[in-house]
Write a structure and sequence with these properties.
Layout (H helix, E strand, L loop, with lengths): L1 E2 L30 H10 L4 E5 H8 L2 H4 L11 E4 L8 H5 L3 E4 L2 H9 L5 E2 L4 H9 L5 E7 L19 E8 L5 E7 L11
Parallel strand pairs: 1-6, 2-3, 2-5, 3-4
Antiparallel strand pairs: 6-8, 7-8
Amino acid sequence: MITLDGVMQAPGGPKEDTSGGFKYGGWVAPYSDEAYGKVVQKELQPADYLLGRKTFEIWASYWPEHGEFWPGINEGTKYVFSKSMKKSDPLITGWKNSVLIKNLADIKKIKDSKGADIQVWGSSGLVQLLLKNDLVDELRLKIHPLTLGNGKKLFDNGTVAAAFTLAESIVTPSGVIIVSYKRAGEVKTGTIGV
Protein backbone atom coordinates (compact mmCIF):
# COMPACT_ATOMS: atom_id res chain seq x y z
CA MET A 1 0.00 0.00 0.00
CA ILE A 2 1.61 3.23 -1.16
CA THR A 3 0.68 6.79 -2.01
CA LEU A 4 1.46 8.52 -5.31
CA ASP A 5 4.59 9.96 -3.70
CA GLY A 6 5.69 6.53 -2.43
CA VAL A 7 4.75 6.79 1.26
CA MET A 8 3.93 3.44 2.86
CA GLN A 9 3.90 4.38 6.54
CA ALA A 10 0.91 3.50 8.75
CA PRO A 11 -1.72 2.68 6.13
CA GLY A 12 -3.95 0.79 8.59
CA GLY A 13 -4.68 3.18 11.44
CA PRO A 14 -3.85 6.45 13.21
CA LYS A 15 -1.72 4.78 15.91
CA GLU A 16 -0.03 2.17 13.71
CA ASP A 17 3.28 4.04 13.28
CA THR A 18 3.58 7.66 14.41
CA SER A 19 7.40 7.71 14.26
CA GLY A 20 8.88 10.88 12.83
CA GLY A 21 5.72 12.76 13.82
CA PHE A 22 3.68 11.01 11.11
CA LYS A 23 0.07 12.16 11.43
CA TYR A 24 -1.75 10.51 8.52
CA GLY A 25 -2.06 6.95 9.85
CA GLY A 26 -5.06 5.14 8.40
CA TRP A 27 -4.88 6.80 4.99
CA VAL A 28 -6.04 3.58 3.24
CA ALA A 29 -9.49 3.44 4.91
CA PRO A 30 -11.28 5.95 2.62
CA TYR A 31 -10.36 3.86 -0.44
CA SER A 32 -11.82 0.54 0.69
CA ASP A 33 -14.37 -0.93 -1.70
CA GLU A 34 -15.48 -4.38 -2.88
CA ALA A 35 -12.87 -4.65 -5.67
CA TYR A 36 -10.08 -3.69 -3.25
CA GLY A 37 -11.34 -6.23 -0.72
CA LYS A 38 -11.29 -9.05 -3.27
CA VAL A 39 -7.64 -8.39 -4.12
CA VAL A 40 -6.67 -8.30 -0.46
CA GLN A 41 -8.51 -11.58 0.21
CA LYS A 42 -6.58 -13.21 -2.62
CA GLU A 43 -3.29 -11.99 -1.08
CA LEU A 44 -4.21 -13.42 2.32
CA GLN A 45 -3.75 -17.01 1.15
CA PRO A 46 -1.29 -19.04 3.26
CA ALA A 47 2.34 -18.06 2.80
CA ASP A 48 5.48 -17.40 4.81
CA TYR A 49 6.33 -13.85 5.82
CA LEU A 50 9.51 -11.80 6.03
CA LEU A 51 8.99 -8.82 8.31
CA GLY A 52 11.02 -6.01 9.78
CA ARG A 53 11.07 -5.61 13.55
CA LYS A 54 8.52 -2.79 13.79
CA THR A 55 5.97 -4.47 11.50
CA PHE A 56 6.48 -7.75 13.38
CA GLU A 57 5.88 -6.03 16.73
CA ILE A 58 2.63 -4.49 15.42
CA TRP A 59 1.47 -7.80 13.97
CA ALA A 60 2.49 -9.93 16.98
CA SER A 61 0.35 -7.77 19.25
CA TYR A 62 -2.70 -8.17 16.97
CA TRP A 63 -2.84 -11.25 14.72
CA PRO A 64 -2.53 -14.07 17.28
CA GLU A 65 -5.94 -13.00 18.65
CA HIS A 66 -7.55 -12.05 15.30
CA GLY A 67 -6.34 -14.80 12.96
CA GLU A 68 -9.89 -15.61 11.82
CA PHE A 69 -9.67 -12.59 9.52
CA TRP A 70 -6.48 -13.88 7.87
CA PRO A 71 -6.50 -17.64 7.31
CA GLY A 72 -3.01 -19.01 7.77
CA ILE A 73 -1.29 -15.96 9.33
CA ASN A 74 -0.69 -17.78 12.60
CA GLU A 75 0.42 -21.01 10.90
CA GLY A 76 2.75 -19.39 8.36
CA THR A 77 6.39 -18.92 9.28
CA LYS A 78 7.16 -15.34 10.28
CA TYR A 79 10.83 -14.51 9.63
CA VAL A 80 11.70 -11.43 11.68
CA PHE A 81 14.66 -9.39 10.44
CA SER A 82 16.11 -7.57 13.44
CA LYS A 83 19.52 -6.80 14.84
CA SER A 84 18.15 -5.70 18.21
CA MET A 85 15.73 -8.53 19.09
CA LYS A 86 16.83 -11.80 20.68
CA LYS A 87 15.52 -15.33 20.07
CA SER A 88 14.19 -15.27 23.63
CA ASP A 89 12.10 -12.12 23.02
CA PRO A 90 8.55 -12.78 24.31
CA LEU A 91 7.02 -11.65 21.00
CA ILE A 92 9.07 -14.21 19.08
CA THR A 93 8.53 -17.04 21.55
CA GLY A 94 4.88 -16.09 22.06
CA TRP A 95 3.73 -16.10 18.44
CA LYS A 96 4.10 -19.58 17.00
CA ASN A 97 6.27 -20.13 13.93
CA SER A 98 8.28 -16.93 14.46
CA VAL A 99 11.96 -17.13 13.55
CA LEU A 100 14.54 -14.42 14.18
CA ILE A 101 17.06 -13.69 11.43
CA LYS A 102 19.85 -11.16 11.73
CA ASN A 103 21.62 -10.75 8.38
CA LEU A 104 21.31 -10.62 4.62
CA ALA A 105 22.83 -14.10 4.22
CA ASP A 106 19.90 -15.54 6.20
CA ILE A 107 17.44 -13.79 3.86
CA LYS A 108 19.23 -15.16 0.80
CA LYS A 109 19.19 -18.68 2.26
CA ILE A 110 15.42 -18.46 2.90
CA LYS A 111 14.79 -17.03 -0.57
CA ASP A 112 16.79 -19.83 -2.21
CA SER A 113 15.05 -22.60 -0.26
CA LYS A 114 12.02 -24.55 -1.44
CA GLY A 115 8.73 -23.93 0.28
CA ALA A 116 5.86 -21.48 0.48
CA ASP A 117 5.93 -18.07 -1.15
CA ILE A 118 7.54 -15.42 1.03
CA GLN A 119 5.62 -12.18 1.37
CA VAL A 120 6.83 -8.89 2.81
CA TRP A 121 4.15 -6.59 4.21
CA GLY A 122 5.04 -3.09 5.41
CA SER A 123 8.64 -3.14 6.64
CA SER A 124 9.91 -0.15 4.64
CA GLY A 125 13.53 -0.46 5.76
CA LEU A 126 13.57 -4.17 4.99
CA VAL A 127 11.99 -3.63 1.56
CA GLN A 128 14.67 -1.05 0.74
CA LEU A 129 17.37 -3.53 1.81
CA LEU A 130 15.83 -6.20 -0.46
CA LEU A 131 15.59 -3.78 -3.39
CA LYS A 132 19.18 -2.63 -2.87
CA ASN A 133 20.39 -6.25 -2.99
CA ASP A 134 18.23 -7.39 -5.93
CA LEU A 135 16.22 -9.83 -3.80
CA VAL A 136 12.73 -8.87 -5.02
CA ASP A 137 10.99 -11.20 -7.48
CA GLU A 138 7.63 -9.46 -7.51
CA LEU A 139 6.13 -6.14 -6.43
CA ARG A 140 2.43 -6.06 -5.53
CA LEU A 141 1.48 -2.43 -5.24
CA LYS A 142 -1.76 -0.74 -4.27
CA ILE A 143 -1.18 2.84 -5.41
CA HIS A 144 -3.60 5.18 -3.64
CA PRO A 145 -4.61 8.51 -5.22
CA LEU A 146 -3.11 10.86 -2.65
CA THR A 147 0.20 12.41 -1.66
CA LEU A 148 1.34 12.81 1.93
CA GLY A 149 4.65 14.62 1.47
CA ASN A 150 6.48 12.87 4.28
CA GLY A 151 6.66 9.45 5.86
CA LYS A 152 8.50 6.21 5.27
CA LYS A 153 8.90 5.57 1.54
CA LEU A 154 8.88 2.40 -0.51
CA PHE A 155 11.75 3.47 -2.76
CA ASP A 156 14.73 5.35 -1.44
CA ASN A 157 18.34 5.89 -2.45
CA GLY A 158 20.16 2.66 -3.15
CA THR A 159 17.49 0.74 -5.06
CA VAL A 160 19.25 -1.39 -7.68
CA ALA A 161 18.34 -0.72 -11.31
CA ALA A 162 15.94 -3.48 -12.39
CA ALA A 163 13.26 -4.10 -15.01
CA PHE A 164 9.84 -5.49 -14.17
CA THR A 165 6.99 -6.68 -16.34
CA LEU A 166 3.29 -6.22 -15.63
CA ALA A 167 1.61 -9.45 -14.49
CA GLU A 168 -1.79 -8.12 -13.33
CA SER A 169 -3.55 -4.79 -12.95
CA ILE A 170 -6.91 -3.34 -11.99
CA VAL A 171 -8.23 0.06 -11.02
CA THR A 172 -10.79 0.04 -8.23
CA PRO A 173 -13.88 2.26 -8.24
CA SER A 174 -12.22 4.36 -5.51
CA GLY A 175 -9.24 5.05 -7.81
CA VAL A 176 -6.63 2.69 -6.36
CA ILE A 177 -4.34 1.21 -9.00
CA ILE A 178 -3.50 -2.35 -8.01
CA VAL A 179 -0.62 -3.87 -9.94
CA SER A 180 1.64 -6.86 -9.78
CA TYR A 181 5.06 -6.53 -11.42
CA LYS A 182 7.41 -9.50 -11.84
CA ARG A 183 11.19 -9.16 -12.14
CA ALA A 184 12.23 -9.09 -15.80
CA GLY A 185 16.01 -8.83 -15.94
CA GLU A 186 18.21 -5.85 -16.59
CA VAL A 187 17.13 -2.32 -17.50
CA LYS A 188 17.12 -1.75 -21.26
CA THR A 189 17.68 1.67 -22.76
CA GLY A 190 17.28 3.23 -26.18
CA THR A 191 16.30 6.37 -28.05
CA ILE A 192 12.74 7.51 -28.63
CA GLY A 193 11.90 8.57 -32.15
CA VAL A 194 13.33 7.92 -35.59
